[in-house]
Amino acid sequence: MFGDINRATIISLSAAFIGLITLGSWISIPFVPVPLTLQTLFVLLSGTVMKRSAVIPVTLYLVLGMLGLPLFHNGLSGIGILLGPTGGYLIGFMPAALITGLLYEKDSKKIRITGLVLSITVIYACGIVWLCWSTGMGIATGVLIGLFPFIPGDILKVSAAYLIAERLS
Fold it and tell me: How far apart are CA 22 and CA 169, in angstroms?
């Protein structure tokens, strides 16, 4: 265990990405019912850098936020955030980080871009399903409110994540 550089790297990168995802949550543009933040950019970046291990910082981010640390958007915390309308989007971060990480283990640019797009799609799917269930709105309204306003911003975030990852590799 002593001198395990891989373990030390995972721990260090996990701490860094928990901090970056938290920072991204504070950079928030108010929308109803879900704010537009930079969290997803850092979730995607964690997958590009940490590969499949990216699920570790994302899961820890959610656990620490549930335990009361003010990590979620605008400094909110607690399990109530995950049970509220934004909860599905936050839970969607875990499979999104894993998908990005797994597909970033491949050398193909097409597979990597597919991973980023698929990850955003998974976040939307989890978020919209939970948004509709937690608020009682219909799926059409959920898509109208919880997807369409965020597409331009998420196209920019996916593009930024890809370009940053290319520079880092």
Answer: 24
Which residues on adjacent β-strands are paired with residue 37? Answer: 28
- Report whether pLDDT(92) > 80: yes
- For the chain, state the CA radius of gyration: 16
Q: Tell me the pLDDT band of 27, cut-offs 50, 70 and 90.
A: confident
Alpha-carbon gap, residue 133 to 84, rounded angstroms = 10
Sign of CA dihedral 104, 162, 10, 101: negative
- What residues does each domain of the chain span? 5-168
> Residue written as tokens 């597919």?
114
Backbone angles phi, psi at 81, to 5 degrees: -65, -40
Count the Cβ atoms, other than its own, within 10 Å of residue 140.
9
Cα 116 to the center of its chain, rounded Å: 11
Which residue bears the tokens 């799926």? 139
For the domain 5-168, what is the CATH code?
1.10.1760.20
Taking every pair of Cα atoms in the chain, the longest distance, rounded to a whole number of angstroms, is 54
